[in-house]
Amino acid sequence: MMPIDAASLILTREPIGKAPEFLVVRREASLAFAAGAYVFPGGRLDPEDYEAGRAPSAHPDPVDAAARIAAIRETAEETGIVVETAPADLVPFARWLPVHEVVVRRFDTRFYLARTDRDVEPVADGVESSHAFWASAGEILDRCARGDGRAIFPTRRLLERLAGFGSFAEARAQAEALPPRIISPWVEQRAGEDWLCIPDDAGYPVTSEPIATAFRY
Questions:
Q1: Domain definitions of the chain by residue range
Q2: Is 4-180 assigned to CATH 3.90.79.10?
Q3: Is the Cα torsion angle 203, 204, 208, 211 positive or negative in sign?
Q4: Any idea what the Cα angle at residue 3 is, between residues 68 and 133, rounded to 5°?
Q5: 135 within 8 A of 121, measured Cβ to Cβ
Q6: Which of 44, 88, 136, 155 could link 151 by a cystine bridge, Cβ 3.0 to 4.6 Å?
Q7: Strand partners, 8
Q8: pTM above 0.70, yes or no
Q9: CA-to-CA distance for 132 and 34, rounded, in angstroms?
Q10: Per-residue pLDDT tens for 143-190?
Q11: pLDDT for 88-125, tens place per residue?
């Protein structure tokens, strides 16, 4: 099965004297994919996104252009926050694509960074997201550690990466310094146990997790 094009937006705000906060949603418990998980707003690309991405003024890569449009659209639909950043100004941060051997339903997901200075509180749509809020990466990881929700494998790795930045500028600088690549986790055995792994040179502080504890990898 061909992978499904998808996009997510990592929208950042910087409270004075605090760690950067990110816009996070908790997916509805009834959904087929990642039910109840903490994720960044996003979803699959719609036909209208592809159409807009083919416009002469869009990004040279029409799929990337469509993904940028979809990331902003999905954020507005899921949280009510209209992102003022233009699609062309979003910062590519990550791209994840599971392999056939790991999952059946595959999403080729592009993650983009954006920053906002607006003090706007999100409102969950009640369809795809049951809760929408701002929190630091460390706070979300702490919630997961306490058993107050969970994050799928890519989101957890992204949160661990984001937790290491003291500002949006730091996150952007790393994203721009690393060569573009697709992260496709693989499985390897360690001491008789299956581990899910990603490259150790892609900016992620944690690069493996036992399959037994990985959620929706």
A1: 4-180
A2: yes
A3: negative
A4: 45
A5: no
A6: 155
A7: 42, 111
A8: yes
A9: 15
A10: 999 989 899 999 999 999 999 999 999 999 999 999 999 999 999 999
A11: 999 999 999 998 655 567 899 999 999 999 989 999 98
